[in-house]
Write a structure and sequence with these properties.
With about 500 residues, this protein is α/β, with parallel strands linked by helices. The chain has one domain: Alpha/Beta hydrolase fold, catalytic domain (Rossmann fold), CATH 3.40.50.1820. It has 16 helices and 16 strands. The chain has an eleven-stranded mixed beta sheet, sandwiched between helices. Strands 1-2-5 form a three-stranded mixed beta sheet. It has a two-stranded antiparallel ribbon with strand order 13-14. Strand 7, helix 2 and strand 8 form a beta-alpha-beta unit. Helix 12 crosses helix 16.
């Protein structure tokens, strides 16, 4: 009890100090129901960082649905990022964090055009970061919303609980309800915050585009098909976000499977654990070394069908017409996989009687290196074919645009044979300098301008545009898609169509 009182007291002291620093500064201010924020202004952009959208999910709030924000008096300093969510840092992350992770992490950030007035009804975009639901955060410099705000959009990015903090079920917690997808509940709470507060920043709560990449893109699919997120956004963009399953292309763990994983986690800690005992565990013990290289651990379920946020797999919901009928822009990258797996024999054997056909498609002359074969197989099974499947299901009843990103920054052309997973992000955010520093060509910058502009056009008008020309809307059975390469944005027949047909038939 003394420890909890000490922690609460320290939090109050830190909050008071934050308010005191804010009162001493100068900058743009926004008044919310919870209190007043002080942001910073840099040229054409106002930034408000580290805004709490829910109470700290620590102590008794660990493994609970997001709780209301505690109001503050005075002016809260919103000129620097708050902590990203607790995690075991992954050295290969394409978007390295800018803060030290913490369990106290339910914060978001808002960028807006400078001096925009409340009620101006600028288009709003809400970004969900990737990281396999175990890594990532909103503080990564490559996710800065400054360029979006410079170009007229109110951009919101947010943190959500990760790993076992975000996705955990256990018999000791069942009596409290609330399911086990706390990370998705966080995302929904942030969208509710946007609906309530974004007008104060000059944004239009009726024109919100939800977009994300990888786990963030998967989250968009989940929120498009979750009854709890209904009406919280008007458009959606999915970048490399699969669509059939969540972290597995064909399966989402049931709640019973998630409970079993939770029990496997707690068993070595001393048998039956109470809810209070679980909440008293040190954060490092809960993290347990989980990251993008170890997320298949048997004592971690990941996102699950909890009956509240996730009722069924996204593709099953789409087939049953239970998804949000909003304009949708979705796509993948040309080298959108990871080299997981064994030797070629093991990779092809996974297709059983169709192994010979798999070899003919992915390694026809037997000379392709194993990592390239594994990367292509992963990309097609987890990203490319599920994305095409979603487009085919939804295109007859709502506007859908399908793309493939195949542009490689000039400095990486000798190293990459295509556009790897997450490499489109700095082009969309127009943050190439953060990813490649200053080793950029005029063509790199031009492609970034076109991609960034297409995402903004979609947020404004529900149609992606490049140089004033509309992208081609997807229409099944055509296999045409919008292809982004060194040739610019063109319309092409999908060069992977034969491979994707094979993957689709293999999964039946």
């Amino acid at each position: 009890m003394r420890r909890r009182v000490f922690i609460c007291g320290l939090a109050i002291i830190c909050s008071v100090a934050s308010v005191a620093r804010a009162q001493a500064g100068a900058g743009p201010q926004v008044k919310l129901a919870e209190g007043t924020l002080l942001g910073s202004r840099q040229g054409q952009v106002d930034a408000f960082l580290g805004i709490p959208y829910a109470a700290a999910p620590v102590g008794d709030n660990r493994w609970r649905a997001p709780q209301p924000v505690v109001h503050w008096t005075g002016i809260r300093d919103a000129r620097s990022y708050a902590a990203d969510c607790a995690q075991h840092l992954f050295p290969g992350d394409a978007a390295p964090l800018g803060t030290k992770p913490s369990e106290d992490c339910l914060y978001l950030n808002v960028w807006r055009p400078a001096a925009v007035k409340a009620g101006s009804k600028r288009p709003v975009m809400v970004w969900l970061h990737g990281g396999g639901f175990v890594n990532g955060g909103s503080s990564a410099p490559v996710y800065s919303g400054a360029a979006f705000a410079r170009d007229g959009v109110v951009l919101v990015s947010l943190n959500y609980r990760l790993g076992r903090f975000g996705f955990f079920a256990h018999p000791a917690l069942m009596a409290e309800g609330g399911g086990g997808n706390f990370g998705f509940r966080d995302q929904i709470a942030a969208l509710e915050w946007v609906k309530t507060n974004i007008a104060a920043f000059g944004g239009d709560p009726a024109n919100v585009t939800l977009f994300g990449e990888s786990a963030g893109g998967i989250s968009v699919h989940v929120l498009m098909t979750s009854p709890m997120a209904k009406g919280l956004f008007a458009k959606a963009i999915v970048q490399s976000g699969a669509g059939r399953g969540i972290t597995d292309p064909t399966h989402v763990p049931t709640f019973a499977e998630a409970l079993a994983a939770g029990e496997r986690f707690s068993k070595p800690l001393g048998g039956a654990m109470s809810a209070s005992g679980l909440r008293a565990l040190p954060a490092d013990r809960v993290i347990g070394g989980l990251d993008m290289a170890s997320m298949d651990a048997a004592d971690y379920s990941g996102p699950m069908i909890d009956g509240e946020t996730v009722i069924e797999t996204p593709i099953d919901a789409y087939r049953a017409r239970r998804g949000a009928a909003v304009p949708l822009l979705l796509g993948t990258n040309s080298m959108d996989g990871f080299p997981f797996g064994g030797d070629k024999g093991q990779l092809f054997a996974a297709f059983g009687p169709r192994a010979a056909m798999a070899k003919a498609l992915y390694d026809p002359d037997g000379t392709r290196p194993v990592p390239l074969v594994a990367t292509d197989l992963f990309a097609d099974r987890y990203m490319n074919e599920p994305t095409r499947a979603v487009a085919r299901i939804l295109a007859p009843r709502q506007p859908v645009w399908l793309y493939r990103f195949d542009y490689v920054a000039s400095v990486m052309q000798k190293e990459w044979g295509g556009a790897p997973h997450a490499s489109e992000i700095p082009f969309i955010f127009d943050t190439l300098n953060e990813r490649y520093e200053r080793a950029l060509t005029a063509r790199d910058k031009q492609i970034a301008g076109w991609m960034h502009g297409a995402w903004i056009a979609f947020a404004r008008s529900s149609i992606p545009l490049t140089r004033g020309r509309s992208w081609t809307r997807f229409a099944h059975p055509s296999s045409d898609l919008n292809y982004i390469s060194r040739d610019g944005v063109t319309v092409r027949q999908d060069p992977l169509a034969e491979r994707l047909d094979f993957v689709e038939h293999s999964q039946r």
